[in-house]
Amino acid sequence: MKVVINIGIGGFAISKEAAKFMAARGNKIAEEELKIYNMSPYSQWHGYGDISVSVGGYVRTDPILIEAVEKLGEEANYASLLKIVTIPDDIEWYIWEADDGSEAVHEKHRIWE
User: Fold this and answer.
1) What is the dihedral of CA 97, 50, 37, 4, to 10 degrees?
2) Does the CA dihedral 81-84-71-25 come out positive or negative?
3) Closest to 61 measured CA to CA, from 86, 30, 44, 39
4) Handedness of CA 55, 75, 89, 102 (dihedral sign)
5) Residue 17: exposed, middle, or buried by beta-carbon count in 10 A (0-12, 13-18, 19+)?
6) Considering the entire predicted model, what is its pTM?
7) First to last CA, the chain
8) Given the DSSP bridges, would you call strands 82-86 and 2-6 parallel, antiparallel or unpaired?
9) I want to staple 8 with a disulfide (CB 3.0 to 4.6 A). Which of 14, 77, 81, 103 is the partner?
């Protein structure tokens, strides 16, 4: 199974180009993200033409997100460093985020205290 994570400092975010790519392929979250971007006065001031994830909720195993990161490469990043990691299909997992915003995929396990 492929999972998209951010290995850079600052947290998960995608570029406006990645959002456009995903919206064109039917991703509703990316469509909403672009609507917010286009209505925001910040987008005019920002000047970069990029977008960070404000809506949230991107499914990190979404084939459209994975395709965007694979096809766009560095152009999919916005204040992040996106990476696709492959993990076994038969494990329970979660995305762990460090204080600096970088992420890793961890296998779920049981803890008793």
Assistant:
1) -30
2) negative
3) 86
4) negative
5) middle
6) 0.83
7) 32
8) antiparallel
9) 81
Phi, psi of 92 (to 5 degrees): -90, 135
What string of DSSP letters covers 70-91? HHHGGGGBSSS-EEEEE--TTS
Instruction: Give dist(CA 103, CA 96) in Å, integer.
Output: 6
DSSP 14: B
Query: What is the spatial distance between Cα 79 and Cα 9, in angstroms, rounded to a whole number?
Result: 8
State which amino acid sits at residue 25: R
Residue with tokens 């979404």: 62
1-47 pLDDT per residue, tens: 999 999 999 888 888 899 999 999 999 999 988 887 776 555 543 44
Question: Residue 21 class from Cβ within 10 Å (0-12 exposed, 13-18 middle, 19+ buried)?
Answer: buried
Query: Strand ranges (DSSP E) for the chain?
Result: 2-6, 82-86, 93-97, 103-107
